Amino acid sequence: MQKKLTITIDEEVYEGLHKTIGSRKISRFVQEMVRPYVVRPNLETAYAEMAKDKRREQAAEEWAEVTFKDVFNEAV
Fold first, then answer.
1. Can you give the C-alpha Rg of the chain in angstroms?
2. Backbone dihedral angles phi then psi of residue 4, each to the nearest 5 degrees
3. Chain centroid to CA 18: how far?
4. Which of 7, 10, 25, 32 is the most buried (most CB within 10 A)?
């Protein structure tokens, strides 16, 4: 569902949006710019889905083991 939002911006920014983005594309532009800052993915669900992939989990485990061995053998 979409909601209508009224915002106030500087006249120079308003003119720049119309000139650069186009009057019928501003809502989509603003939404795409703002979305990553306000819509957070459900990380717990995403990690649970990733864990179901046994091949990916095996590759990640092998990578981690090699990395731990490399760190352990580094000179301090």
1. 23
2. -90, 140
3. 27
4. 25
Which are the contacts of 29, defined by CB distance < 8 A and separation ≥ 6? 17, 21
Burial 44-64, CB ≥16 within 10 A → b, else e = eeeeeeeeeeeeeeeeeeeee
Q: What is the pLDDT of residues 16-72, one digit of tens each?
A: 999 999 989 999 999 999 998 888 888 888 888 888 999 988 998 989 888 887 666
What's the whole-model pTM score? 0.52
Query: Which among 29, 4, 3 is positioned nearest to 16, based on CA atoms?
Result: 29
Q: How far is CA 36 from CA 4, 29, 31, 33, 73, in A?
A: 19, 13, 9, 7, 39
